[in-house]
UniProtKB/TrEMBL annotation:
Keyword hit for Hydrolase: yes
GO molecular function per UniProt: exodeoxyribonuclease VII activity
UniProt gene name: xseB
Functional summary from the UniProt entry: Bidirectionally degrades single-stranded DNA into large acid-insoluble oligonucleotides, which are then degraded further into small acid-soluble oligonucleotides.
GO terms, biological process: DNA catabolic process
One Pfam match: Exonuc_VII_S
InterPro entries, alphabetized: Exonuc_VII_S, Exonuc_VII_ssu_sf
UniProt keyword list: Cytoplasm, Exonuclease, Hydrolase, Nuclease
Top EC category: hydrolase
Catalytic activity: Exonucleolytic cleavage in either 5'- to 3'- or 3'- to 5'-direction to yield nucleoside 5'-phosphates
Entry protein name: Exodeoxyribonuclease 7 small subunit
Length: 81
């Protein structure tokens, strides 16, 4: 599902940077209620996207660690002298 503002295609760093800008905009105030709500909704989408990226990275790290833990002891080179 693609978001109308293109947030679904963003990488983690891009989404995080846009989320920072959303927070700054909301903190600065001076927006109408509609503008504030639209910005809040965009922030929610960006936060979920960041969480999705972080979850994916966590899964990749856990998979890599499991592979290393399951591998034979490479440090010994397989020799049992």
């Amino acid at each position: 599902m693609s978001e109308p503002d293109g947030t679904a295609e963003l990488g983690y760093e891009q989404a995080r940077d846009q989320l920072i800008e959303v927070v700054r905009g909301l903190e600065a105030g001076g927006l109408s209620l509609e503008e504030s709500l639209a910005l809040w909704e965009k922030g929610e989408r960006l936060a979920k996207l960041c969480e999705k990226h972080l979850d994916g990275a966590r899964e990749r790290i856990e998979a890599a660690l499991a592979t290393v833990e399951d591998a034979p002891d490479a440090a010994s080179g397989g020799d049992s002298e």
